[in-house]
Amino acid sequence: MSHTLMAEAPKGVDWPVLHAALMPLRKRVQLFPIPAEGDKPMALGMSVPQRQCDDLGWEEFTQLLDVMSNKFGMRVYDMATGEQVTPECLEKVKGGFICEQ
Fold first, then answer.
1. For residue 53, what are the contacts with CB-CB under 8 A and spacing of at least 6?
2. 19 in Cβ contact with 80 (< 8 Å)
3. Confidence check: pLDDT of 67 > 80
4. Structural domains in the chain plus CATH codes
5. How do residues 4-25 score in pLDDT, each as one tens digit?
6. How far apart are CA 101 and CA 83, in angstroms?
7. Most C-beta atoms within 10 A of its C-beta, which of 28, 53, 71, 79?
8. How far is CA 96 from CA 18, 19, 56, in A?
């Protein structure tokens, strides 16, 4: 099992530049591109294995979230709930993210 999220790029994104910005931060979160289809924008899938859904995994996710949201204008969604991840709901998302080992 894993916790999955998706970051949409409604304005498009330069993938090599995004990759360069995210890779130094990424150790636990697995990333994969989702191509645009029809009227749906390009996106970046994120998967965090359950054994990595701990405080360190959460810290990494929030760092990635900051870069994707603030530097690239991406919108991040929690695939478990379908809700957009915003600063106002971070604690709620964290409650579903952190798994007791």
1. 2, 3, 97, 98, 99
2. no
3. yes
4. 2-77 (3.30.70)
5. 999 998 888 888 999 999 999 9
6. 25
7. 53
8. 26, 26, 15
